[in-house]
Task: structure prediction
Amino acid sequence: MKPDRPLLRLRIRAGSGQSGARPSLRRDASRAPGRRGPVTAILVASAVLVAHQARAVEPIHPVPPPPAADPRIVALGERLFHDPRLSRTGEISCASCHVLAEGGDDGEVISTGIDGEKGEINSPTVFNAGLYVAQFWDGRAETLDDQIDGPVQNPIEMGSMWPEVTDRLYGDAAIAAEFDALYPPDRDGDTITRDTIKRTIATFVRSLHTTGSRFDRWLAGDENALSARELEGYRWFKHYGCHSCHQGAAVGGNFFQVFGVLNDSQYFRERGNITKADRGRFNITGNRADMHAFKVPSLRMVVHTAPYLHDGSAKTLRDAVDAMFTHQLGRTAPDHHKEAIIDFLYTLAGTHPLGPPLPSREEASR
Ligand code: HEC
Ligand code: HEC
Result:
């Protein structure tokens, strides 16, 4: 089977802020052949180069290393991410809904915030969020810094007011000393402020890239990184046009697309009980064309983050893939194509020291 042209071609919606210039494949000089003879060296070098050129046109790019950052800010951000003093009741931290060791989400259909209040939408992973064009399912926050106002102030997530949060953190001399060492005082002489807290946590979240996935090793030219079946799954992924939406380093996160784009949002008509969250990007733009449009989710850590879809309605990856065929592609496909695609999805997960280990092949064979 040859990697066919996609059956589905979608125009990327103007104004949805497509990110474009993501770091792509770069030739790593350290991969150049070492102590081989000059002729072999040239042959090997050109073979490596050809492999790289071929892979450079793939719609999926490797997860780049995280941006350079002061390690002290990253470490402090990690502490704040796990600090329940950010919530009004002192019970909920970012990590309550984004459990890093389990993939960066909470495994629930809908998250639970303070006082046991249920939220409105499925919690996505925080891994690789720094690669997205915007934050949240509807993209209402443009940056990770702005995103943090959301959960901290949301009455059913953490329910805090910023002055309470800064007061509570000032009550901790060790934390205050760390902020003093890292940030210059503002006009009021404070170093713990809404701005520095947001910057610190956002710097930590930006460090959460999952690198070293088997798929990225294959992109870098390691032919043995994928099994024949996983590679077949990748070809079906492209054949059916999944990559017209799920693409780039995060395999998603680059733009918004209507859920039900090919069947006039049949999903919502059948499910009924439409909530505000279901309206997606329409809530931000007020544009009819954005009704039920969501940021295309990243598939990088998808094997770790069941249940799926913005409403958590898909219990398994197979359910999510079935929904994609019905609502995003308007097609059917034989079981073994879908199962091979799922095996391919397992190869997209990389690792981070705080995250889960690489998913195993046994898991992949399910
Ligand atoms: C009560 C559960 C809960 C808490 C606490 C929480 N989050 Fe979230 N988080 C969510 C949910 C649910 C969403 C999706 C909301 C939406 O898209 O409307 C989300 C979205 C995000 C996103 C956007 C990811 C994407 O795919 O767009 C990031 C980043 C994030 N949270 C980081 C944080 C940080 C940092 C904190 C702590 C300051 C935090 N969250 C606290 C539940 C939570
Ligand atoms: C037209 C754009 C588009 C195409 C084509 C598409 N997807 Fe999606 N995909 C989306 C959007 C948008 C969502 C989020 C929908 C929602 O949650 O309501 C999504 C969600 C998913 C999810 C769930 C992710 C999560 O974290 O909840 C998976 C898995 C997935 N897609 C895989 C695929 C596969 C495999 C294909 C090809 C068979 C595919 N997609 C084709 C746009 C697309």
